[in-house]
Amino acid sequence: MRRASDAYVRPEPSRSPRSRSARASRAHSPPGPRSSFLAAAQWPASHTPWTAGPVRKGLPEDGSFCTAGTTPAAGTRHRDFRTELDTGARQTVTVAPTTAKAKALAAELRTALATCLERMKEQDPGIEGVSKYHGRVNVEEGAHVYSIDTSYPEAGSTDIGLYAVGRDGRTVTVLEWGQLGDLDTAPLKGFKKTTATAVAKLH
């Protein structure tokens, strides 16, 4: 995946009884996934600043190869981030109906990431690569980080992707970060920090 805030300004409160009632209703409503997204500046620093697209409902039209067919469209939102160079990222947030279903989804996503390189090779025999698991990030119910380092020897091109799956209660988030290059040039430590931030925001 070669891509992945809101600057939310709270409106001035109205003092009318109707507005107070509306605010009270919102206070008793569960927060939506929109408030759970990373800010552009919370991604690892790049050569050019990150910019964020809008939060969109459902799955992205150009979905991730690694997680395709795993994340349900229902209860899901996503946001893409980009820089002016060949670096992009995406965050997907899914609120499952129950904690048990969220736990199962997180496990399925982990399996999808762990087996992604093998499926890439089946689809494109010309690709070479290395897939690695980089451990657990201790935040909320936990997050897990992976990397997929691929190359096309005939073309001389290399790509590195960093991925994470994390969960807090019924909410699951997937982070995807990619750029030209290899694992040695990727901000793995910064990505783990971003992962911890993302999962902590899922309340």
Outline the fold blueprint.
Blueprint: H1 17-27, E1 51-52, E2 56-57, E3 76-82, E4 87-95, H2 99-114, H3 116-123, E5 128-137, E6 143-152, E7 157-168, E8 171-180, H4 188-200
Antiparallel strand pairs: 1-3, 2-3, 3-4, 4-8, 5-6, 6-7, 7-8
Report on this structure.
Helices cover 24% and strands 31% of the residues. By secondary structure, it is α+β, with helices and mostly antiparallel strands. Strands 1, 2, 3, 4, 5, 6, 7 and 8 form an eight-stranded antiparallel beta sheet that branches.
Q: What characterizes the major β-sheet? A: 8 strands, antiparallel
Number of strands: 8
The oligomeric state of the chains shown is single chain
Q: What are the low-pLDDT stretches, counting only 5+ consecutive residues below 50?
A: 1-34
Alpha-beta classification = alpha+beta
Gross morphology: globular
Terminal Cα span = 27 Å
Query: In percent terms, what proportion of residues is strand?
Result: 25-35%
Helix content: 10-25%
Count of helical regions: 4
* Structural Rg: 18 Å
Q: List the helices and strands in order.
A: HEEEEHHEEEEH
Mean pLDDT: 84
Task: Provide a compact summary of the structure.
This protein is of the alpha+beta class and 203 residues long.
Which terms would index this structure?
4 helices; globular; 8-stranded antiparallel beta sheet; 203 residues; alpha+beta; disordered N terminus
